[in-house]
Amino acid sequence: MPASQSAKDFFRPLAVGAPTPLTEIPFRPSRAIHFFDPSNAKMAAKIPAMVGTVDVLLGNLEDAVKADNKLAAREGLITIGRETDFGPTQLWTRINSLDSPWALDDLTALVEGIGDKLDVIMVPKVQGAEDIHYVDRLLAQLEAKAGLDRPILVHAILETARGMANVEEICGASPRMQGLSLGPADLAADRRMKTTRVGGGHPGYLVRQDPATGDEAGINAARTTYQQDLWHYTIARMVDACAMHGIYPYYGPFGDIADVVACEDQFRNAFLLGCVGTWSLHPKQIAIAHKVFSPSVEDIAHARRVVAAMGDGTGAVMLDGKMEDDASLKQCLVVVRLAEQLAAIDPELKKQYDAIEVG
Ligand SMILES: CC(C)(COP(=O)(O)OP(=O)(O)OC[C@H]1O[C@@H](n2cnc3c(N)ncnc32)[C@H](O)[C@@H]1OP(=O)(O)O)[C@@H](O)C(=O)NCCC(=O)NCCSC(=O)C[C@H](O)C(=O)O
Ligand SMILES: [Mg+2]
After folding, report:
1. What pTM, to 2 d.p., does this model score?
2. Residue 256 alpha carbon to ligand 1 centre in Å
3. Which of 92, 94, 255, 322 is placed for a possible disulfide with 120 were both Cys, Cβ 3.0 to 4.6 Å?
4. 144-154, pLDDT tens digit by residue?
5. Which Pfam families does the protein's record reference (predicted)?
6. What does each C-alpha distance from 342 to 31, 38, 203, 293, 294 come to in angstroms?
7. Binding-site residues, ligand 1, Cβ < 6 A
8. What residues form DSSP beta bridges with 94?
9. Mean pLDDT along residues 341-358
10. Number of helical H runs and strand E runs in the chain
11. Radius of gyration (Cα) for the chain, nearest Å?
12. Res 187: pLDDT
């Protein structure tokens, strides 16, 4: 909440006739936010058949859509939105950046055309709370005009150094804030990092084993190196800011579509650090995201054992030589609850999770 605003005003609609803001952002599984270009006829044709196979379908209007295709992408998304029954799958969009020639018309046309179908609007290159305040008021006006009865939520991409520095105020800028994603490519450029990739690691970012001896021979001898995670600090900051404000953090794009192994590693790092999902740029990344962002059968079995052993949730017990207490119970409950939420929307997972026997 901005410092200048009173608590009672925070949840008031920002336009007469706009829907009342939510006081809590509901958790809806969003393991993969699948990007498609609505101006690409081949890709767009595949979207109706992808309903139910992925948690979120996102019509991308920003980067990766050619300037000449911006209007076709916007119109294409409106057509897909109107003609498709999305069932359990969420429909999101990524609009163009707020300083671009397209953002205003993106918001106006999308809310008027498919505001009743859109769950979340992703805003790229968010710099600070002022960007969210602008979108917040404009959406309220457009929702009122379109007669919508539920607010469209807002998701910010962190892809500038200023946005990172303002991450907490961005998360708390509006009751519409649903979550954050990392935009590693734009962020790297803005920070003047020397990477040239879309997400993932870099072989030059490493630590090296100490030399066995301090002389030239030791220094020049073979020494083990370990590649480090370029994104650890950024993702951890993002996760804390989201948790503090009751909203959801996501990893972003992994551009090396062919490297499914490193993609899985990057997604898993984000999952373990607290992210609830990631972007998928190509159909083959959906299965990777679903696998990683759904707790494993082994983790659920262990978590359920701890829950059962902890009884009323207080005190300490020994399980397999390890101490469990109130705090490890809370971690296990995070896993158990996530499993329940995912089982409710994914029949295949439900079967696997229901079959787990708690020893
Ligand atoms: C990455 C791609 C350009 C690859 O496309 P293509 O060369 O066509 O791949 P394939 O030949 O392997 O495709 C096989 C079939 O699958 C269809 N396809 C491909 N991608 C998608 C998709 N995303 N959704 C639905 N269907 C898809 C192809 O049409 C092929 O169909 P068929 O010929 O009938 O078999 C492409 O995947 C792509 O453009 N993906 C999306 C890229 C994107 O959205 N980028 C923006 C997000 S990342 C970013 O913006 C950076 C971030 O902001 C930051 O700052 O870090
Ligand atoms: Mg970007």
Report:
1. 0.96
2. 11
3. 92
4. 999 999 999 99
5. HpcH_HpaI
6. 9, 28, 35, 10, 7
7. 35-37, 42-43, 46, 60, 63-64, 159, 183-186, 198, 252-253, 257, 281-283
8. 60, 122
9. 92
10. 15, 12
11. 22
12. 98
